[in-house]
Design a protein that fits this description.
567 residues; alpha+beta; Double Stranded RNA Binding Domain; FAD/NAD(P)-binding domain; D-Amino Acid Oxidase, Chain A, domain 2; 9-stranded mixed β-sheet; 6-stranded mixed β-sheet; 38% helix; 23% strand; zinc-finger; cell projection
């Protein structure tokens, strides 16, 4: 909404600056100008220049690409950078002046997209038989991950001469105006994922539709008084709760912007694959052939499987998958609060049957994710509205699982911590009370854990739930997928810049190594937490109580946890 009403509440406090911004993220990027931080590094051989903003890096990469989209309107000479063109015009055409030409100059805010449009070699129609995209993405029912890889590569200057095909099993989803009711399928978007969406232009669309930032996360145990609070000292946003349909709509708009480079096949399904021999590793080797249900055939140098935890790409490539079913289901619903609040806290309580989470959607609405046994989940979905609301409030407020022994031991340990670190404990807040549930918003789905033993093979890469599946208690499922996208896009961009074969294992293995190190750690930690909080045995309850209290009293440890989850 701030984009429309012009509100800019985030102000730079550096002396003599005073610039204002609509979001905390934009202010954070701006502050790098004052601090000198330049985290975005050019990977071109022999360059090594660094930049404070990703957009500046993208503009710089044009120098290496050889593309010269900025033309002098007087003599017709072309330049890779608008600044070089302007210097040329002042030097050689000063009598004519630059005022007229500046009127025809592309707005600076649109430079990234307009530059790509001018420099792209338009691809042929991929609907024709035996068309040969350089990059193919197969998706079935988790649209966020594969759509963003298509958008990211479509916007990459190094892919201006590549063909990209995106197979989407579902229909096209785009909203100019969202329905008044919220969807029951939402995602917790980390700052790192928001940066990725921003880099390809989709985040502005998300902000123009709707999202709810949260600045604090409170997690506590139903069997004790132990809790942990995550928040940032600078009051920056910890993350954003966004409906999946909003993300899809934003990515669809960005796919339209690169329609000359990315061909999307909606309501399509792959029914067969023909794989090249692994021994063929040069550019002239056979490509992956994909047969669609309607009889069409595509060929691609690299097939990216983003088709969910039941991935057909993974199965057809004979990549083993380690799976475990949790014997739990997640119940989701859209809830209305008893009264309006700032509602900028994400709440989660570990019950003996599984965690229950309340995620903010607006000042008066929140989204429920309740992990519990299959039988209890069916009861929750089937019960009347009043009983359902009572069950939710009881799950957040009841102390029926407490014991005097655990409470006493926890209180003694907490007192000892307060003596050692008087300012090390956070203030406990009370969760909001739920008044009603949106009709027809209740649903349930089974939970499990999975991890592919390999993310890549010759001309094949897996991302998102096709490569890994995690329990929702950490709220990191979609962020792991977006992390895969960012990493794979980085390595493919470097390969395209160097003229390498996109399907070669040389750079695909770098992606696999980098992502498995991150993903395996998070999946394992999540699985341990799930098992640790699924018991009511007093020794284990006491152990986790002390552990949670100790972690909550150590800000550096919490900062490391937040930093890891934000990647």
């Amino acid at each position: 909404m701030r984009t429309h009403n012009g509100e800019k509440p985030f102000v730079c406090t550096e002396l003599g600056c005073g610039k204002q911004f609509t979001t905390a993220g934009n202010l954070k990027n701006h502050l790098r100008i004052h601090t000198g931080e330049k985290p975005f590094l050019c990977q071109a051989q022999g360059c090594g220049r660094s930049f404070a903003e990703y957009s500046s890096l993208r503009k710089h990469l044009v120098v290496h690409s050889g593309v010269k989209p900025h033309q002098c309107q007087i003599c017709g000479k072309t330049f890779s950078q608008s600044g070089s063109r302007n210097v040329h015009m002042r030097k050689h055409h000063s009598r004519i002046g630059t005022a007229g030409s500046r009127e025809r100059e592309q707005p600076e805010s649109l430079m990234g997209s307009s530059l790509l449009e001018e420099s792209t070699v338009h691809s042929k129609n991929l609907i024709s038989m035996n068309s040969q995209p350089s990059l193919g993405v197969e998706s079935l029912h988790l649209p966020d991950t594969e759509s963003i890889i298509g958008v990211e590569e479509g916007h990459d200057i190094h892919f201006h001469d590549k063909k990209i095909a995106l197979l989407e099993a579902g229909p096209r989803k785009e909203y100019d105006h969202l329905p008044d009711s919220y969807s029951n399928r939402v995602s917790s978007i980390s700052p790192g994922s928001a940066t990725l969406l921003s880099s390809c232009g989709a985040w502005d669309h998300v902000c123009s539709l709707r999202l709810k930032p949260f600045r604090r996360m409170q997690v506590w145990d139903a069997c004790s008084e132990a809790m942990i609070v995550f928040e940032k000292d600078d009051l920056d946003d910890m993350g954003y709760i966004v409906e999946n349909d909003v993300i899809m709509s934003a990515l669809t708009k960005q796919l339209d912007a690169v329609a000359d480079r990315v061909e999307v096949f909606y309501r399509s399904k792959a029914v067969g694959y023909t794989w090249p021999l692994p021994s063929h590793s040069c550019d002239t080797s056979p490509w992956v052939q994909v047969e669609l249900a309607d009889g069409r055939r595509l060929q691609t140098k690299l097939l990216i499987g983003a088709d969910g935890h039941n991935s057909m790409v993974r199965k057809e490539a004979e990549i083993k998958n380690i799976e475990h079913q949790y014997d739990q289901s997640a119940v989701v619903a859209t809830l209305h609060l008893s009264e309006a609040t700032d509602n900028n806290v994400a709440w989660q309580r570990f019950l003996p049957t599984g965690p229950i989470a309340l995620l903010p959607l607006s000042d008066t609405a929140s989204s429920l994710v309740w992990s519990t046994s299959h039988d209890h989940a069916q009861e929750l979905v089937a019960m009347d509205e009043e009983s359902f609301v009572d069950s939710i409030n009881s799950a957040f407020w009841s102390n029926i699982n407490h014991s005097d022994f655990i409470d006493t031991a926890g209180a003694m340990f907490r007192s000892a911590i307060s003596l050692l670190r008087p300012s090390g404990t956070a203030v406990r807040q009370l969760p909001p009370s739920v008044a009603k549930v949106d009709p027809e918003s209740r649903a349930m789905f089974p939970l499990g854990m999975g991890h592919a033993t390999e993310y890549v093979q010759h001309r094949v890469a897996l991302i998102g739930d096709a490569a890994h599946r995690v329990h929702p208690l950490a709220g990191q499922g979609v962020n792991l997928g977006f992390g895969d996208v960012a990493c794979l896009a980085h390595h493919l961009s470097a390969a395209a810049f160097n003229g390498s074969d996109l399907g070669s294992l040389k750079h695909l293995l770098k992606f696999e190594t980098e992502r498995q190190r991150h993903n395996v750690s998070l999946i394992a930690a999540t699985d341990v937490l799930k098992r640790l909080y699924s018991t009511t045995l007093a020794p284990l309850v006491l152990l986790r109580t002390w552990g949670l209290q100790a972690t909550n009293a150590l800000p550096p440890v919490k900062e490391q946890i937040m930093a890891f989850a934000s990647k």
